[in-house]
Batch of 2 targets.
Target 1
Amino acid sequence: MTESAPYESLLSHQARTATSSVIRDLLRHANRPDVISLAGGIPAPALFPLERIGRASELALQEVGATAAQYGLTEGVEELRELFAADASSDSPAHPGQILVTTGSQQAIDLVGRVLVDPGDPIVVDDPAYLGALQALRGHSPDIVGIGVDDQGLDTVELEAKLRSGLRPKLVYTNPNFQNPTGATMPAARREHLASLADEFGFVIVEDDPYGALRFSGDPQPSIAAFSERVIRIRTVSKTLAPGLRVAWMISPQPIHDALVIAKQAVDLHTSTYAQHTALRLLRDRQWYAEHEKTLSPWYLERRDALSEGLHSAFGDDLVFNSPEGGMFLWAEMKGAKIDTTALLDVALENGVAFVPGSAFAVERELPNHLRLSFATASPSELREAAVRLAAAVQGLRGSHVQ
């Protein structure tokens, strides 16, 4: 065997400087059978309608035959785009010609970066932000500006102040519903304010909404697209059907849509035709799908409450956290004696519980005392036990510092 060639020298600058997802790396440890994971932001497998997916898959082959296994249009299966357009029009008019089916919403974010961002362009994101969006957008070398997220989502007053001081972003990326990682929901008035800023200053809003169907309290809020045409809407079936289908879609202003289609041709030609036809046969059964969606929120609500009760019991006032109206996450902060949650993670894994440190989501702010806790996949009893293990890990870390 000869010594391996120095392949590192062949890598592009982007490949050399790209970093792996903290959460993806963490899941390797969190998948241990002795660990209760509060880390991954993944939907509960128990909610996947597997039997129905199997029937829809068979039906796709029966109805369209080899077409379901053939190359397809880059834009996506026409009937599926018609269905998505009809659903989206309840918020703001949408036409099938504005819709691009993508291989998951992660690809949609990457495509936005490909067509809108040149190296060095300023863009705005939530701070803290969804880590996958940061990873996708950083690949296009923008100048990322973080705008703080409070209990009502992206702080549009802070954004306006920076815009009036000279900031001119190409785009603003945000999760308006049950934001990842904070769980915050942006109210209609703030959405309207953000839309007015887009119209005044000429940027595009990227409205990424993977969790909107997982609401268990409060009133649904309109899409930001109800207030401005300068909005790219990203939606997915990953949280309502199954992420393995890798079916998402984006609705864009026509000139941007046309550029996105060309960009996607270069990436993967089109999203799996077979997966699209399978998803179509699930979604077009409107009565079944509506009933299926109704089963999702009670599941997550029960688990949110179980984790909240466990944390209150285990920590008292030493840990403060939100109570989201939907989604999958609690956003918590250690109070009292400060605990660096990155250092806490190793101790927590030893105690059989995993979470994501707040610093993983930070853009410009320092979040050393924060942590994201997902209640999506564990049982209520496991979530209560996870809170006990997390408290034990905190005590263990404090004890090691005393020594």
Target 2
Amino acid sequence: MSGDGRNLDLLMNVSLGVTVELGRCTMRVGDVLKLGKGSIVELDRAAGEPVDVLVNRRLVARGEVVAIDERFGVRLTEVLARRTPRP
């Protein structure tokens, strides 16, 4: 195995934070405190729009929400190109 392969193997068990963002909104603290079961929070996206997939708070893909056996998941529809590193 080459040196590059061993270095990549070291990274395979590193945990990353993955977040799926449906949308955003801004609310006052008082309005947040009034939220309860059944409350609806209006987001800045329409139903059916792609969701953002972030890894360690960096946008890496977009996808659609799917339901499988009463569980939710995300089907990736677009993987964003990597940014070229700064010189």
